[in-house]
């Protein structure tokens, strides 16, 4: 049995994890931690912590996991550079799966996006459109950022310079080096992402639509089962799925 501790257990994703874990024969929930609870008090009873709390909480969760030699699955998004720096300090000590999106479909979208960018080449304009529910706090979504990183990697662009968030006013003609990123918010949308490759005379659109949080929860639980068997280091969902 792999014993998991969920941080952010009362949240939308935390509740999906608690419910989906019942379908995993080899997983047992050893602890549920939310705001006001003390992770340090229960961490010894788990093999792996699955964190879906908030970006600002993840560095302390990671530090505690490293101190207790527990594996970690990071699901939070919206990390600042400081958050990221703090988290990467622990990967020499423990195995960590860090993914902006745990769905198998989205990880297939990542793979397809890389392939399409390689095949279509620099003449195609690149735009990403994402939509999420009205309560989502960070924008653009972590998944949209991952898609943009993939596109920038293939085109050999610096994402900070290439990323173009929305357009307003006299924005001017589009530059070939732009990667447009657009965040739409409303209703109860679980997560939609479209990557547009547009050229004169034709357009390719790759779209993924999540209709249930269970898809992320099941992926994160699969990652938890996988990560406890790994050496210390930083892994992605592509590693878990063998998509690399
Ligand atoms: P949510 O606001 O519904 O839940 C977050 C929970 O964390 C809340 O219950 C909150 O009380 C709790 N929390 C806050 N501070 C805490 C602390 N110090 N210790 C423990 N718990 C604490 O949010 P959500 O929609 O469940 O999303 C949670 C995170 O997961 C967000 O960063 C979101 O972007 C991300 N997310 C990632 C994926 C993915 O596949 N990687 C999918 C969906 C959401």
Give the overall silhouette: elongated
| Structural classification | alpha/beta
Averaging pLDDT over every residue, what do you get? 96
Number of helices: 9
The helix content, as a percent range, equals 25-40%
As a percent range, the share of strand residues is 25-35%
Radius of gyration: 19 Å
Structure at a glance:
The protein has helices at 12-21, 39-42, 58-68, 81-88, 104-120, 142-155, 159-162, 214-227, 237-241, and strands at residues 2-7, 27-33, 48-51, 71-74, 95-98, 125-132, 163-165, 179-185, 191-199, 202-210, 233-235. The protein has 244 residues and is an alpha/beta fold.
What would you note in describing this structure?
The chain has nine helices and eleven strands. With 244 residues, it is of the alpha/beta class. The longest helix has 17 residues, at 104-120. The two termini are 28 Å apart. The radius of gyration is 19 Å and the shape is elongated. The chain binds nicotinamide-adenine-dinucleotide (NAD). Nicotinamide-adenine-dinucleotide binds next to helix 1. Residues 7-8, 10-14, 33-35, 52-55, 57, 75-78, 99-102, 138, 216 line the site of nicotinamide-adenine-dinucleotide.
Write the layout of secondary structure elements.
Layout: E1 2-7, H1 12-21, E2 27-33, H2 39-42, E3 48-51, H3 58-68, E4 71-74, H4 81-88, E5 95-98, H5 104-120, E6 125-132, H6 142-155, H7 159-162, E7 163-165, E8 179-185, E9 191-199, E10 202-210, H8 214-227, E11 233-235, H9 237-241
Parallel strand pairs: 1-2, 1-3, 3-4, 4-5, 5-11, 6-8, 7-8
Antiparallel strand pairs: 6-9, 9-10
The structure holds nicotinamide-adenine-dinucleotide.
């Amino acid at each position: 049995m792999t014993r998991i501790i969920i941080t952010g257990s009362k949240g939308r994703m935390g509740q999906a994890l608690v419910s989906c874990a019942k379908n995993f024969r080899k997983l047992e929930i050893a602890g549920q931690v939310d705001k006001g609870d003390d992770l340090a008090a229960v961490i010894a009873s788990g093999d792996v912590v699955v964190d879906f709390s908030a970006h600002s909480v993840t560095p302390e969760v990671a530090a505690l996991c490293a101190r207790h030699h527990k594996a970690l699955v990071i699901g939070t998004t919206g990390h600042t550079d400081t958050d990221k720096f703090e988290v990467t300090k622990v990967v020499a000590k423990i195995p960590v799966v860090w993914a902006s999106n745990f769905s198998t479909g989205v990880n297939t979208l990542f793979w397809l996006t890389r392939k399409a960018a390689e095949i279509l080449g620099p003449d195609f304009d690149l735009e990403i459109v994402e939509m999420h529910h009205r309560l989502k706090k960070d924008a653009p979504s972590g998944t949209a950022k991952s898609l943009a990183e993939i596109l920038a990697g293939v085109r050999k662009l610096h994402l900070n310079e290439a990323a173009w968030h929305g357009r307003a006013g006299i924005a001017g003609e589009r530059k070939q080096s732009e990667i447009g990123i657009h965040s739409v918010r409303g209703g109860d949308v679980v997560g939609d992402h479209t990557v547009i490759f547009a050229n004169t005379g034709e357009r390719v659109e790759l779209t993924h639509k999540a209709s249930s949080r269970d898809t992320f929860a099941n992926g994160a639980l699969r990652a938890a089962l996988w990560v406890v068997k790994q050496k210390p280091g930083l892994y992605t969902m592509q590693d878990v799925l063998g998509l690399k």
